[in-house]
């Protein structure tokens, strides 16, 4: 290119095939996330987790290629045409696929169309369902003593083909693990064909359904019985991977709770959440620390906010206050949301933390103080107990006997907040201004990512960190929420849950992330002691002492 030619401000259109999943939205490569961030348009199919679309720019177009069972799924020609058309318009097109694009992902057809149209492309690998299934089931698919090879096999037979496309004789002799995709509807035919071709009927088979989803299921059986297990007592529906071979018998699911010795229960070393699934309901931007701490303790975290924080409408008192110099003795934040919203307001009005001038700052709890610290400010006052009453008392005590008597305070809070603080301070003669910096909106509907594992009883703990979150999750219904354990961050939040008829399993003794986690760990340790006590009631053969033993 001649140096005099103007530089292109935009790259030409191209297509990026991105693999992700197959279930959890965390199983995507950094390169995949980068591709989603720069996409103008994303074409995604039903196997890709829709939560991945959160990485996209707000103005990116999202095209769903149909969902199984509910709408027509696009055929391959239509997908190929759309990829070519969108990229020809100069757009960056991401084709988001569940698992790895190159493994039963129709990558070849799509790439052929792109090559034909001379459209540049890139393939970003993903985690294929077989390796996700192996991880979930705890199956080492190439265990050195049992399998030195693996084969990815499709169980789907081409419609209209009279003879099978699979060479069962070769597969039966294959010296390693068979990983069978798309084999649920054809389970009878491939299992009998493998046995007829000489594969031992007692070969272990692991059926792994919805790998890497929180409600993943693993059932271990044999080649002779796999078809019956899939059909009865209740049919097992796709997506399923079948792991066929001796390694399938080694299935060790990590999801079984880590048992704690009773004498150790409560000691620091025994406190873990290994194998527990915890739903974090807080908006994600404020949930990072909680998520990190839970992951460090071994929990699987489902980060799906139950509320959204929206800044208060412009024209609110906040805008006026931000335009004037701060005239308050105290600025009080009642939540990290308020801190974020206030600083966003400062930024909008072209100001920074110097706006606070000599005002002192109080926060209701440590989490809020921590949010403030991120903006370079240290709270002057954080009460030892985290509620509005205690905050009011502490503020009044702190100013007791100060010159000039009554003080001026600005309370920055959410729309749903209570009036306690204002009332207490006013009663003590303070002049109080309030600014509603944000409001919270309930999430209207929870997706299958939450509903399915809740129904299956796979969410061990649900963290409830504010009364508005309590109201939002209440839409899921008492029956469903009785299958998880609700841990409340404060008595106030516990009351909100109880008002909705929801059972509270634990309440944090300190309204902070640490308090919340301690409450979960204490309850888990108590369970371990209870479990061991119930085992003590058993006779040496495992039957309950005193009870008649039943023959199965
Ligand atoms: N490209 C994908 C495979 C697509 S074919 C990949 O690399 O994983 C679709 C098949 O993948 C399904 O029929 C099922 O066999 C398997 N599959 C997809 N998601 C799965 C999941 N979460 N758990 C188990 N199997 C899954």
SSE topology:
Layout: E1 14-20, H1 30-38, E2 41-44, E3 61-64, H2 76-88, E4 92-98, H3 107-116, E5 121-124, H4 129-137, E6 150-154, H5 168-173, E7 177-181, H6 187-196, E8 204-209, E9 217-222, H7 226-231, E10 240-244, E11 277-280, H8 288-296, E12 300-303, E13 307-311, H9 317-323, E14 330-333, H10 336-348, E15 360-363, H11 366-373, H12 388-399, E16 408-414, H13 420-427, E17 431-442, H14 448-455, E18 461-464, H15 467-474, H16 478-481, E19 485-488, H17 491-499, E20 504-507, H18 513-536
Parallel strand pairs: 1-4, 1-5, 2-3, 2-4, 6-7, 11-12, 11-18, 14-15, 14-16, 16-17, 18-19, 19-20
Antiparallel strand pairs: 7-10, 8-9, 8-10, 13-17
Helix pairs in contact: 2-3, 10-11, 12-13, 15-17
Bound molecules: S-adenosyl-L-homocysteine.
Shape: elongated
- State the domain count: 4
Under the CATH scheme, which architecture of the largest domain would be assigned?
A: 3-Layer(aba) Sandwich
| Mean pLDDT across all amino acids | 85
Any ligands, ions or cofactors bound here, and which?
S-adenosyl-L-homocysteine
Kindly describe this structure.
- With 552 residues, this protein is α/β, with parallel strands linked by helices.
- The protein has 4 domains: 14-127, 3-Layer(aba) Sandwich (Cobalt-precorrin-4 Transmethylase, domain 1), CATH 3.40.1010.10; 131-158 and 165-250, Methyltransferase, Cobalt-precorrin-4 Transmethylase, Domain 2, CATH 3.30.950.10; 277-306 and 443-534, Rossmann fold; 310-442, Rossmann fold (3-Layer(aba) Sandwich).
- Helices cover 31% and strands 19% of the residues.
- The protein is built from 18 helices and 20 strands.
- The protein has helices at residues 30-38, 76-88, 107-116, 129-137, 168-173, 187-196, 226-231, 288-296, 317-323, 336-348, 366-373, 388-399, 420-427, 448-455, 467-474, 478-481, 491-499, 513-536, and strands spanning 14-20, 41-44, 61-64, 92-98, 121-124, 150-154, 177-181, 204-209, 217-222, 240-244, 277-280, 300-303, 307-311, 330-333, 360-363, 408-414, 431-442, 461-464, 485-488, 504-507.
- Strands 3-2-4-1-5 form a 5-stranded parallel sheet, with helices on both faces. A 5-stranded mixed sheet has the order 6-7-10-8-9.
- Helix 17 links the parallel strand 19 (485-488) and strand 20 (504-507).
- Helix 10 runs parallel beside helix 11 and helix 15 packs parallel to helix 17 (491-499).
- The longest helix is centred in the last third of the chain and has 24 residues, at 513-536.
- The chain is elongated, with a radius of gyration of 29 Å.
- The model is unreliable at 1-9, 254-269 and 535-552 (pLDDT under 50).
